[in-house]
Specification:
Blueprint (H helix, E strand, L loop, with lengths): L4 E4 L5 E4 L6 E2 L7 H15 L5 H21 L3 E9 L2 E13 L5 H15 L4 E7 L2 E14 L10 E13 L5 E9 L5 H12 L3 E3 L1 H8 L1 H6 L5 H19 L5 E10 L2 H5 L7 E9 L3 H16 L3 E3 L9 E6 L4 E6 L5 E7 L22
Antiparallel strand pairs: 1-2, 2-10, 3-4, 4-5, 5-9, 6-7, 7-8, 8-9, 11-12, 12-16, 13-14, 14-15, 15-16
Helix pairs in contact: 1-2, 7-9
Length: 369
């Protein structure tokens, strides 16, 4: 499972970011069309396990065409999601590109990029923003989306619309620009995707090779018995087990989970780039929204008696419980929009500032697949 993506920005600098776990990676690196088709077919079976062969074929055709366009545009990474928004399918793509530059500074790049984009897209919202990785240009707009007959609902070619957000991030030395983009034809879900993308770009940051290896190989770091990581991992899983006991939903835990090295919110806000904590993320399947809400409520009541202090945070999408423990652990439980799944995030204390009581964790919502 992808926990971070890295791109060379120059000899010494790399950019890293954390894509949502429900985004699936498109096979840009496939050796030929046959391998790409095989990998897309495997993805369709993974993403749409209950779908018909015809529905999976439509997905392969749609993303096969997108794959060709992304390759032609020089994308170095591309992910996509197919979500169930309370019974309605919704999709978005998430590619990343990089472009070399010469004779520019980061400030010049931002100013010049904004000027060029405003001339090319006068109707779009284009401005310079401050991100954890530095200044960047953000473009928000839309563009025509031709839909071929085999993908349209009426069997004829139609002209659709695709919402688009792009972030142009110059490297620290001004040698190139990294472009991260979110596009979706599901305009009724625009608010959700724009909020999601705002969370994603907050994870963009520059790092060096030594830190990059640590950031992109959490499974290796977590399984190492040569340092304290194994002990920390064991304690983290023990904490997750206590949370599961409080939820009382043992039989419904989804096997899909991940353990990642991250920069904690406090350190990220103060400019640190190297990992300082572990986070364990896991899912629970519930029968309906009422059962999810009841489980969260009972869990909150139980954990308040066990040293957990409820904090502000959570999600606007439904019931949630966000808390910190007196030992420094953080917890975030949130329901999906449909109410049929719970996402649980348990974060260790920061080992850079161990002993500090952390502030509230900011939740990034992961919806149903």
């Amino acid at each position: 499972m992808v926990t971070s993506t890295a791109f060379t920005a120059n000899r010494d600098q790399y950019i890293v970011w954390l894509p949502p776990p429900f985004f699936h990676t498109l096979p840009l690196a496939a050796a030929d069309a046959e391998e790409a088709a095989d990998r897309l077919h495997a993805l369709a079976e993974e993403v749409l396990p209950a779908a018909t062969q015809e529905e999976r074929l439509r997905m392969c055709l749609a993303y096969g065409g997108l794959l060709d366009d992304l390759r032609a545009a020089g994308a170095e990474y591309a992910g996509f999601c197919i979500l169930d928004m309370e019974g309605r399918p919704s999709t978005a793509s998430l590619p990343m590109y990089r472009m070399p530059l010469e004779g520019c500074t980061a400030t010049d790049v931002c100013a010049e990029t904004r000027t060029v984009l405003r001339e090319a897209y006068p109707e779009d919202d284009i401005r310079i923003r401050d991100l954890p990785c530095g200044k960047a240009v953000v473009r928000i707009g839309d563009e025509p989306l031709p839909i071929p007959p085999h993908l349209s609902p009426n069997g004829t070619s139609i002209e659709g619309l695709r919402g688009l957000i792009q972030v142009f991030v110059p490297s620290p030395g001004g040698t190139e620009v990294v472009v991260l983009e979110l596009g979706t034809p599901a305009m009724e879900d625009w608010d959700f995707y724009s909020e999601l993308f705002a969370e994603i770009v907050q994870t963009l940051n520059w790092t060096v090779e030594e830190e990059l290896l640590f950031l992109t190989q959490p499974s290796d770091a977590a399984s190492s018995a040569d340092d304290n990581t194994a002990t920390i991992t064991q304690e983290l899983h023990s904490c997750s087990s206590d949370v599961l006991d409080a939820l009382g939903l043992h039989s419904q835990v989804d096997p899909d989970n991940r353990l990642s090295n991250i920069v904690c919110p406090n350190c990220s806000a103060t400019g640190h780039h190297s990992p300082c904590a572990l986070v364990h993320e896991w899912l629970i399947n519930t029968a309906n929204a009422e059962k999810s809400a009841t489980a969260i409520s009972l869990c909150g009541s139980t954990l308040r008696d066990r040293g957990w202090l409820e904090t502000d945070g959570g999600t606007v999408w439904g019931p949630s419980f966000t808390a910190v423990h007196t030992t420094g652990y953080r917890l975030d439980i949130a329901s999906s929009p449909s109410g049929r799944r719970l996402l649980v995030k348990v974060l260790t204390p920061c080992w850079r500032t161990e002993g500090e009581v952390p502030g509230p964790i900011r939740h990034t919502y992961r919806p149903d697949n």
